[in-house]
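Aim 2 progress update. The chain analyzed this quarter is reproduced below.
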Amino acid sequence: MSSTTNQPDQSSSSSSTIVQPPKRGSSNGQHRTTNRTRLLRIIGRSMLGLMVLVGLALVTCWLVVTPKKPVFSLERGVVTLHSLTDRKLNASVSFHIRSFNPNKKAAIHIDYMTMTINEMGRMFEMVVCNFSQVPGNLTVLSPTIPIDFVYPLPRLQEKVKFDGISPELQLSANIRYIINGWISKRRSMEIYCNRHMLKINGSTPLDNIKCNVDL
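Predicted structure tokens:
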């Protein structure tokens, strides 16, 4: 009789896989990393949303609260003749200037204003008094400046009597805005008005023609 010896199946033992339980340390580390990533994403989104809200608020304030420039226009001009020869003119020129504050909340204060007249290449300058305007206020300025010059060409007397003079007006000033007790810094302001023919010894209506205002 032959004896049979049972040997272990090597192929089945070698193909079997031993499954080890996951390490607790690596699982906890991955969980903490995921939570940190989520937190960073939430913070980033919150900061982005806050920046958008602040930007919208600034734009809204700029559109609603930002003060507007005052509006200047010429109502009429007056030339008072003192003496006139064939080459020399001596007179006083007065402009009635309308200053309007178009703002609904901001008052304005204008100081250090100077008025300059350019006539036939000669510049004449004077200082205008400081003034303030509440919202919606209309103020009429009537500065008068003397002019006295010698015309380089003859026949000045004939020209002035028939045509008058056409001075160019410019105003320079500093402006500050006042809103609920807050006062802005001084800003330079330049006002340019086109030339208009003014008759001698009379009042010339200028129909409230607007001047250009630069801040």
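Confidence is low (pLDDT under 50) at residues 1-5, 10-15. The domain at 71-214 is CATH 2.60.40 (Immunoglobulin-like). These observations will guide the mutagenesis experiments scheduled for the next reporting period.
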